[in-house]
Amino acid sequence: MIVLRSDEEIDCIRQAGRIIHKTFETLRKHIKPGVRTEELDSIAREEILKNNGYPAFKGYKGYPANICTSLNEVVVHGIPSERKLREGDIIAIDIGVKFRDYFADAAATFGVGEISKSAAKLMRVTEESLNAGIENAICGRRLSDISAKIQQHVEANGFSVVRSFVGHGIGTKIHEDPEVPNYGRPNTGPRLEPGMVLAIEPMVNAGSYDVEILEDGWTAVTKDRRLSAHFEHTIVIKESGAEVLTA
Q: Which of 88, 112, 92, 94 is nearest to 30 (CA)?
């Protein structure tokens, strides 16, 4: 069931989104060679709690950390550890925040020091595909219009869209209906209505879209071990167009 949120509920999700934005701004200053991903996890937790939020991922289905830190060939759900960032790495950071009883979710990929032109292009195209999807989150259109636009942009630039993980509705739970794939045919699926809150999150691979899960049960990597990038925003559908709640 897709829940249409009231203005009061959307404001709580917006507050959670602002905490995520502040957390990214803080983390950005620390993403450099030599920093351990577990340090980023601690910094994020401190920032979230300082702003009256709670790290939504901590303990979710047993997840052991506060944020996800996915390096290079890791697509999603990388667990922070003693691994140090190295020059040329790319790191996708996924943050979920609970504020009062409501959730927001966002992700961004960052370069560590000087990165390759191919890695920079992958990151740029992934973020562009997210923006293209959001631009098509128009009241009265279909959910798959978002998905199709993301896929079109990604594949036109020679990359592939991950099929194994998709975006989702969000509100009083971190994952709600509907699923929001990053691929598909336009003009199918539920019609977009005011009050729908969606987490749109393209995960884009430099090579094949196939992924596999490592032995920890969480870390998803590209099967061909080529690079992957991930960007995400939580949005709300409005009569006037989508509002990004995590910007």
A: 112
Question: Taking the alpha carbons of 177, 180, 181, 184 in that order, is the dihedral positive or negative?
Answer: positive
For residue 178, the enclosing domain spans 7-244
What are 94-111's pLDDT values in tens digits? 999 999 999 999 999 999
Whether 1 maps to a domain, the answer reads: no
Instruction: Answer left, alpha or beta for residue 31, where phi above 0 means left and psi between -120 and 50 means alpha.
Output: beta
Identify whether the C-beta of residue 34 lies closer than 8 Å to the C-beta of residue 112: no
Strands (E), 20-66: 54-55
Instruction: Give the pLDDT confidence of 173-220 residue by residue, as tens digits.
Output: 999 999 999 999 999 999 999 999 999 999 999 999 999 999 999 999
Q: Kindly give, in sequence order, each residue whose CB lies less than 8 Å from that of residue 194, ignoring residues fewer than 6 positions away.
A: 4, 139, 237, 238, 239
Closest CA to 76 of 61, 95, 58: 95
| DSSP code of residue 230 | E
CA distances from 185 to 100, 152, 180, 189 (A): 37, 10, 12, 10
**For position 118, what pLDDT does the model report?**
98
Which CATH number goes with the domain that contains 89? 3.90.230.10
pLDDT at residue 6, as a whole number? 98
pTM over 0.90: yes
Helices 117-135 & 143-156, crossing angle to 10 degrees?
Answer: 160
